[in-house]
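Why run this: before we spend reagent on co-expression, it is cheaper to look at a predicted model of the complex and decide which construct boundaries make sense. The entries below are exactly what would go into the expression plan.
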Amino acid sequence: MANSLHIVVCAGIVPDPLQTLEPITTPAGPGLKNEMVLPAVLDPWAASALYEAANLAAKNPGSPQNPSRVWLVSLGPKAKLQQVMMTVAQKVAFELVPIDGPIGGFPDAHSTAAVLAETIAALPGLDRARLLLFGGWESATRGAGVTLQLIGERLGIADQFQGVDEINLRDDGSFEVLERVEGGKHQVSVCAGTPAVLGWATGNLPEPRNNPQIGMANMRTIMPALQKAKAAKLEANGLRYLSASLPRQQRTTRVVKDLTPDEIAAELVEWIEAE
Amino acid sequence: MGKAPGLSVLPIQTCLIFYEEAGISVETRAANSPAPDLDRQTMEVDIACAGFGPAMGGFLTTLTREWSEHPDDPAFQSRVAPGMPLQVLCYERADDIAAGVSGVVTRAQGIRASFPHLYPAEIPLAAEVHRERVLYLLDPIGASRRSALLRLGDFFLRLGGKLAGVKDSAFELPWTPAFLHKHGGLVLSIGQFNQWVGSQLMAAGLVQIWPGTPVSAPIFSGSAGKDVPVEEAVLGLRLADQGVDRTGAPAEGFMAGMDVRARLTVIGDGPVGQVGRALDQRLGTPPGYARREWALGMKFVIELPEGSPLEPGSVWHTFGYPEPEIFGFFYVHPERLVSVGIFVPSWMGDPLRTAYRYLQHYIQHPALWRYLKDGTLRSWGAKSLEESGRHGEPFLAGDGFARIGEGSGSTNMLTGSGVDEAWTTGVQLAEAVVELLRAGKPFNRKNLSATYETRRRLSWVERGARQAENARNGFHNAHGRSSLVRGMIGMALAGLTGGRFSLAAHVPPPHQQIRPFSPRSAEGLKLKDAAALALADGRSLHDALLTARGWPEIPFDGRLLVTQQDALLMGGKVQAIPGFADHVIFLNRELCIACVEKTCIAMCSGQAITLGPDSLPAFEREKCIHCGACLWNCAQSPDGERSNIDFRAGAGGLHSAEN
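The model came back. Tokens follow.
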């Protein structure tokens, strides 16, 4: 029997990490200077989840009566979501479920999870028994690392996997999951079937090529969805940040020729130990 | 022909009937890419657009607005997707529409006409121009290569000191002609402006803009290699192949670039865009056409130190330093940001001309450094400017296509204005398209000429272009040699007489503007030694050459004064999406090997071209910011006009939103 999957990918948008990011304190808490000016990208961890979801759905198309479907649920300012979709929509086929919310990576994870879970639960046509809830294991913004689990709990999904690099679906509906564990190894688990939550690491798929036809097909549903995006207000729930800072960057450019690998390694070790 | 699920794609034969109905001659469906045609998908749209910049912004904004105001107008019904509105797709090479590379000052006449209630604060980093200065910069170092006449002038200015108005080694012109003024205009970040325009367009829902999607070529109705009739039609755009190796040969994950067939193809891909240049090669150019004047604009975006007295909207133009041929600019944005940069023109015949190192010396000039010291470099960028103005105007329209923006020769080189003109040409084309749609007329040469071209000819863009047409002649004399003083006189003459008078000149092709380098002269030998040492030490070539010429080393501080490679990593890195072919091609290896000047290396903005084995230039796509400077900084030519470097379709480039 062909597996028919309902995959919901939760993916936030983040400021393009290639830009100059400068943390500041705003009246609403920590933020980035000129954040609305910065272009946004789909959170790279969640993007891996989206590509894996599309790949899985393509391999398991279901039946004409019960086709596999991929939803992308994203919370962020509508204008920014629209901008990000100009690139993402060319890559894989999905149905966008936008939620017009605040920018920034500092809202309370519980509030975010509540809004996302409520939205997912209300998706028309979603069969929660066939649900695979995908998302990023980490985030390129704040990395709270709990939002996806909280959504799963709110939706009553007990089987959760984090740091996933691979999923192999079996004909009987069960699946094998490879999760990252210490020492660069994978833990192999077998789950009896959906529903389940999978927080993706990088996966194994390359970023799909831009395909204009996929983009055009996606846009026919994305633009109306964006126009109808409901607004969400995230409660702070008493959350207060004392400080926020970017990871310290250090770059020293030096051109050196004819160093042996051993010498390069020794210098790197010396540099790391000095940190 | 491929078909995506849920897409309404008409059979190609049906589409061709449309063209024939439209009076467009259709000979064959073959396109002109050397890549295999197997599995090449085809998509039918109404209007296909190449490049998203100010011109395309003006076109799509005007078209979208007209449709939004008349949603039930049958003129806006798609012919390729019945029951749907017009299918308008725009493809952009850069991986984000905000990844522009210009800070500009513009009178914003056309932009304000499109947005009559524009409030500059709506656009990030935009400010109204409120103060303009023109500064002549003296050389505080003594390394600048000035003529005897300039040195004499400098001597008297220094002698006069403050009494003569000299401060910080700069002399502020007490009066500037009106044609240079931008008062009341806007200081803009084109990256932010594009983003602001693009988001409104996408929200309207009529237009799709796809970044990260380079267009490799127009699709012609005639078969490749055949004698080309001028009446040949353009049938759409072919997107670049993906999943190819550096040479363009299919590799892992090969996906042939899609053919996007359209009733109208709008080309706004700029002066070095592959589509526009392919049209010129295939269809020819109008009599008198000569695209021979260029400049590389390179700039920093710098965050000014706390307490800076500079107000947003302050605009400075400079000349005289770091070299007499290099003009400079200084535009103050809100948020304590400033765009500061230089223009290195093609008429600066020095074969060792460069940009990044000169830019570092420029910002350290006392007149600028007083404000920039303690600032922080936020981003950096560069772009080729096509400075031939009306001389570089190609055929504006033909069967199935129209050209807008800088690549259509709209830049006014007298007023130093291009964005507003580009925007306006887009608006004019959109008005013409709406008129033809409503009249049910096809997009052929005759109709586009009667509507778009006529609008353009009757507009302020054309009047300005006429006045500016020969304004830059003075920079070249009758023998093709360059001269700053003569050039300034020529500019003034043309500007003050509305273009009625100008100096005569012979403007040679760009490769002939590069003076031959004499490796056996005293300076040549010195520079040759410096180059050899630089190569041995792994230093960049142009850095070593300027040092050898007496320019002091840059005192790197890691914040504002950084190496060029570090600048590539600050505030918007270079993107090179894998799976695309190299877009910089050295056509004739023998010419490159024999080339002594190798100006392409010194002028490469991103140091993406270096000296490789066998004296051949080597190209690294991962460092290229797509400025296009290599295209006109080549001292060799295989045919006497074009350079020995081809600049093809490529994805990525500089990725900075603050430019």
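The first strand of chain A starts at residue 6 and ends at 10. Residues 28 and 106 of chain A are 9 Å apart (CA to CA). Bring this page to Monday's planning discussion.
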